[in-house]
Amino acid sequence: MSTTTNHAATRTLAGAVLPAPGVWDIDPGHADVAFVGRHFMVTKVRGRFTGVSGAVTIADDPADSRVDVVIDLATVESGNPTRDEHLKSAELFDVETYPQATYSSVAVDWHGTEGTVEGNLTLHGITRRVPLQVSFEGYVRDPWGGDRAIFAARAVVDREDFGITWNVALEAGGVLVSKEVKLEIDLETVLRRS
Questions:
Q1: Can you give the residue ranges of every domain in the chain?
Q2: Could you give the CA distance from residue 191 to residue 194 in angstroms, rounded to a whole number?
Q3: How does pLDDT run across 51-61, given as a tens digit for each residue?
């Protein structure tokens, strides 16, 4: 049994406060889709995409919910303009050929305020199943009357699974750039009003 609070923007389900059913649009200005790789197999290098859109559709049964996200790969930022241009080049993301990455969920396993979202990530023209570990971080009503649900998600992918194989072998062994990349996602979503 569920009850609603905060102008029907949240509900209590099995003792956990969760977003109410509906379409929650991603706020591009408050969406952080970041990645962390290793340089020289040691140093963490961080980047993020600023062009993010999509929605989280919350169903009556959380397991029936879905996530659809589009990422503009040309908006990559890593804090270094030269590296950003290399990331956009044909050696890595190849944004001229593959301008977008997409993620569409296919299954949700939800318990309390956390769960696993299984989805298809399409990147560099290749689609692979990627599980996201997702948590609902909370709800807030913004000063303009919008209802916001905040989510965080984490995953690890092998970039070579998506055909992004550029690298340089190091003289002492190993490679310049790690194959394994961590994804760190933080999203504010706004309840769509009909």
A1: 2-191
A2: 10
A3: 999 999 999 99
